[in-house]
Design a protein that fits this description.
The complex is a heterodimer of chains A (324) and B (267). Chain A is built from 1 helix and 28 strands. Chain A has 324 residues and is mainly beta. In chain A, the strands form 7 sheets. Chain A has a 4-stranded antiparallel sheet, with no helix packed on it. In chain A, strands 4-5-6-7 form a 4-stranded antiparallel sheet, with no helix packed on it. Chain A has a 4-stranded antiparallel sheet with strand order 8-9-10-11, with no helix packed on it. Chain B is mainly α and 267 residues long. The longest helix of chain B is centred in the first third of the chain and has 31 residues. Classes of the chains: A mainly beta (324), B mainly alpha (267). Chains A and B meet through strand 26 and strand 27 of A and loops of B. Chain B: Belongs to the ABC-2 integral membrane protein family. Chain B: InterPro entries: ABC2_TM (IPR013525), ABC2_TM_bact-type (IPR047817), ABC_2_transport (IPR000412), Alc_ABC_transptr_permease (IPR022403), T7SS_ABC-Transporter (IPR051328).
């Protein structure tokens, strides 16, 4: 018994003295003004952090030490230090920031300002606003290609993808897509971009080499009315095998063969599935389900939903820290 | 009496049940059509209407097909048990039951063996149903198929004992069809087989309490939890308790001489 006590005490001390090994996922809760921190091993919420008003888009710095948060109703981008879990800074963002993207140089943050029809580029190191680029009406989605050459903004009302040259901050091409484009995701090699159109119900695949659309796909979820099938978040696996598309109020995530663009399956998740992120070894995909207030976890190898984790109200964005 | 006698009798009753099953293969097939229709047609129409929510033992959102599959397993056993009871009334009327009960072995042993043999046939049907349910994406974990076996056997014993008890009250075959309607349908509909109990509670609290007091609810929950590798002591406890009580009542009350064949006086 004494020996057992000693072992337990020792194990506790080791546990206290070493940092947690578990991988962490961060989820922004739009209505609660909080972030939920999920341990991706135990699949439980381990912490809730108070942040600014109406947090939506979130992303990690390239060195994974900071988390940037679009606090939409505070008209600012907050910087959270991941080690201390404290807000350490705010960045000028323009009004009502919703989505943003960080350039691979870890400096230039591209923020879409929905109310002003502009994209603001901020240098996160000195808070300088480097450019304000006029785009279409109600800019929404924002992405920067992994090679750093392109920033793409989607404008909801104009239904366009605006291709911004990251050296000149000038729009080089506009591509018309389906109604209300929401999100853009690049393949790892920066050769292909996937864009979702929420009202159009379509996903558009763009060849980045010549900036032409090479494919357009739509979705039919069995037993679900077609007007509820609204593609939003997209996530691509690094091996080029799958694309996952969150289909909003249809409560399903589409699994797409990223080579043939064939829909392989529809996976049932919570209500109004919004954004997606893969964990570090790409074994699990996390989805935010806004209306049901939870995060569903998909086993990528099995293509099955294995768990749904209750978080705050209206979870919007999710990122998994690959270093934790 | 030696153990060998018991074994001989046990094997005899099992063999007779399997022979009966083999002669009634079409009944076996038709008994599968009923739950499959519920699974494929009814569930497809209702999946959007009933909404979804996470309730134990499920870890995430499920389709309505997945929800009702354990209830339909219970349905197969329920129908089989009642049909088994019907066949006991037949046996009694035609005298073969009396032949069985002439055995010098204790009557409770004979009746429980009879219930077990009927249960084995039911459990076989449930497994065929679960395999077919894979086609509509009802995919419990692999070990769940093994873990559910005790719950299925327990459920078939409980419902078999209920059937036997009903059979002791029935004096004529003609009365039985009516009783089946008054037993099978209320038991099935007023349980958690088709709707989760929280949904029943939303609709009406008294209906919820009826469902709570229905032992079939707990049998279905025992099947549901086992199938998904979760332990539900309440469901198992209630199902086991009800099984023991029903089996005691049924074996104590079973009187073959109460049978009247088409108005003739008992011998």
């Amino acid at each position: 018994m004494i020996s057992l006590f000693k072992h337990t005490a020792l194990a506790t001390m080791i546990g206290l003295s070493t940092p947690a090994l578990a991988s962490l996922a961060y989820v922004s809760n739009e209505k609660d003004n909080t972030l939920s921190v999920i341990d991706t091993d135990s699949m439980e919420v381990v912490d809730t952090i108070d942040v600014g008003a109406r947090p939506r888009g979130i992303l990690l710095s390239k060195d994974y030490t900071k988390l940037y948060i679009c606090a939409s109703d505070d008209d600012t981008v907050q910087v959270l230090d991941l080690a201390t879990r404290k807000i350490i800074d705010t960045l000028p963002s323009g009004e009502d920031p919703e989505q943003f993207a960080l350039h691979p140089n870890n400096k230039h943050l591209y923020i879409s300002n929905e109310d002003d029809a502009i994209v603001t580029v901020v240098d996160v190191t000195n808070k300088d606003v480097l450019a304000q680029i006029n785009v279409g009406i109600e800019p929404e989605g924002m992405a920067v290609s992994p090679d750093g050459k392109w920033a793409v903004n989607t404008s909801e009302t104009t239904s366009m993808l605006h291709w911004i040259n990251t050296e000149t901050f000038e729009i080089e091409k506009n591509i018309v897509v389906g109604q209300r484009p929401r999100h853009v995701e690049f393949s790892k090699d920066s050769k292909i971009a996937w864009a979702s159109a929420e009202i159009g119900g379509t996903v558009h695949i763009i060849d980045v080499g010549n900036l032409e659309q090479i494919h357009e796909m739509s979705f039919k979820v069995p037993g679900v009315n077609q007007d509820r099938v609204q593609p939003v978040g997209i996530e691509l696996t690094d091996d080029g095998k799958y694309a996952f598309v969150a289909l909003g109020p249809s409560n399903h995530v589409a699994v797409v063969d990223a080579q043939t663009y064939e829909v392989l399956d529809y996976l049932l998740v919570g209500s109004r599935v919004w954004q997606l992120d893969l964990d570090k070894d790409q074994k699990h995909l996390f989805t935010t389900n806004g209306v049901s207030g939870d995060v569903s976890v998909i086993d990528v190898a099995e293509l099955k939903v294995i768990k749904s984790i209750k978080v705050g109200r209206y979870p919007w964005g999710v990122v998994v820290d690959p270093t934790s | 009496m030696k153990a060998a006698h018991y074994w001989h009798c046990f094997v005899g009753i099992q063999t007779r049940e399997w022979l009966r099953f083999w002669q009634q293969r079409t009944r076996f097939a038709s008994a599968l059509v009923r739950p499959l229709l519920w699974l494929v047609v009814f569930a497809a129409g209702f999946r959007a209407v009933l909404g979804i929510s996470i309730i134990p033992p499920y870890q995430t959102y499920i389709t309505y097909e997945t929800y009702i599959a354990p209830g339909l397993c219970g349905m197969i056993i329920l129908f089989n048990s009642m049909q088994g009871a019907l066949s006991m009334v037949y046996d009694r009327e035609l005298g073969s039951m009396r032949v069985l009960l002439m055995s010098p072995l204790p009557r409770p042993f004979l009746l429980v063996t009879k219930l077990l043999s009927m249960g084995v046939v039911s459990v076989g049907q449930v497994y065929v149903f679960l395999l077919l349910a894979l086609l509509v994406d009802v995919e419990p974990p692999l070990w769940g198929y093994l873990a559910v076996l005790p719950a299925l056997v327990l459920t078939s014993l409980m419902l078999g004992a209920l059937g036997l008890l009903i059979a002791t009250w029935i004096k004529q075959l003609e009365n039985f069809a009516g009783v089946m309607n008054f037993v099978i349908f209320p038991m099935f509909f007023m349980s958690s087989a088709l709707y989760p109990l929280w949904k029943m509670n939303e609709a009406s609290p008294w209906l919820y309490w009826i469902c709570q007091f229905n032992p079939f609810t707990h049998a279905v929950e025992a099947i549901r939890f086992s199938l998904y590798l979760e332990w539900n002591p309440v469901a198992f406890g209630i199902t086991s308790g009800v099984t023991v009580v029903l089996a005691l009542l049924a074996t104590a009350g079973f009187r073959p001489q109460r049978t009247r064949i088409l108005g003739t006086k008992p011998a």
